[in-house]
Amino acid sequence: MCKRPVVVCGASGFSGRLIAEFLREYNVPFIAAGRNQKKVQEVLSRVPGIETADYEVAEVQGTVEELTKLFSGSKVVCNTVGPLIYYGLPVIEASLRAGCHYLDISGEQTWVRQVAENWGAKFAEKGLVAAPATAYMSSASDIAVRLCLEVGGIDTLEILSMFKGIPTSGSTQTIFAGISTEAYYLEQNQYKPWPRAKAYEVVAPSCIQTQLALPWGGFPHPVWFKNDPQVANVRTLGGLLDRQIMETVAATEKHFEENIRPLPKQEQERRLSEMASSVQPGTPPRENTKLHRTIDVVLGRGSMKFTQCTMFGTCAYRQTGLVQAFAAHHLAYAPPRKIGFASPCEAFGHRELLQALENHGLSRAQFSS
């Protein structure tokens, strides 16, 4: 019997179980992997409809050797174990060794740059794709970006990504881990650093009050367009549609710069992890489409042109589960549109991803120019 084509790493986490839920909908057999087999099985038992899914549970530790053995014979690895800047390296290395396509749900620009600069060419040599940031926080705006670029003559992108909801413990750890990293925007195809510990007032369509946004580690978009022949300037801001939470994050960034950055790196990481755990120690409830909404705005500008695309959606984490499952389903049966390092839309098509989101009632695009 052939091995199941997809491996979900970190299947007991909030995002992992949602990926499993949508893999079931796409009828894709998968291996649910985690450090504790009993915990993974218990979590998956609560996934709606899991009794009709074709899956198995595997217990694996985080070494490259163990992961390579687990991945061998499969086609796709969906990595949800973060923060990726801490835990991503063994998984992507094992994916390459095993000859698997690599997907993850990162939003950390530092990690995405590592994948682009250190792993993209290696995956391309094997005809494989490495597509980090295949998740709501970047894929929705990636779709809007590509729709804007269809206009032609656009060389500058301003991007805003906001959502309403409760970040999971893993997302909170990632947000706090990113505080210690440099965030960059793109200016004339060169990386330029954002000012540290600075928040920005932004206008989000459908919101009567201004919102507070942050560079949040820089986002992947500047990395995707670093060597693009058309797009030269990219800036992305994002955050939660909750000013109180964003003010807390902004204050934390200021506290880090003043009191924690002078400490050794290991101590910085420990302090940030403790702070993240104090903010969100557990698992939030399942998202509610009436409450947990998303909005992603892309403004495209050329010398003589302007265009705007806005993605209105619901349930950021469900969107993540869907785009991961959609991508895994594609790779289980067909090659990617681009090999090596790629954005979700480069690898799987922006109109195809948009159609998947629309079909599941999770997001739609509104375009104007």
The number of distinct structural domains comes to 2
**What's the number of helices?**
13
- Which fold name fills CATH's third level, the topology of the largest domain? Rossmann fold
According to CATH, the homologous superfamily of the largest domain is NAD(P)-binding Rossmann-like Domain
Number of strands: 16
How much beta, percentage-wise?
A: 15-25%
Give the second-level CATH assignment, the architecture of the largest domain: 3-Layer(aba) Sandwich
Question: What's the shape?
Answer: globular
Structure keywords:
alpha/beta; Rossmann fold; Dihydrodipicolinate Reductase, domain 2; 7-stranded parallel beta sheet; 13 helices; 16 strands; 41% helix; globular
How would you describe this structure to a colleague?
- With 369 residues, the protein is α/β, with parallel strands linked by helices.
- It has 2 domains: 6-135 and 317-362, Rossmann fold, CATH 3.40.50.720; 141-314, Dihydrodipicolinate Reductase, domain 2 (2-Layer Sandwich), CATH 3.30.360.
- 41% of the residues lie in helices and 22% in strands.
- The protein is built from 13 helices and 16 strands.
- The chain has helices at residues 14-25, 37-44, 64-71, 84-98, 109-125, 136-149, 169-177, 221-224, 243-260, 265-279, 316-333, 344-348, 350-359; strands at residues 6-9, 30-34, 55-59, 76-79, 101-104, 129-131, 156-163, 184-187, 190-193, 200-202, 211-213, 233-240, 293-301, 306-314, 340-341, 363-368.
- It is globular and about 55 Å long.
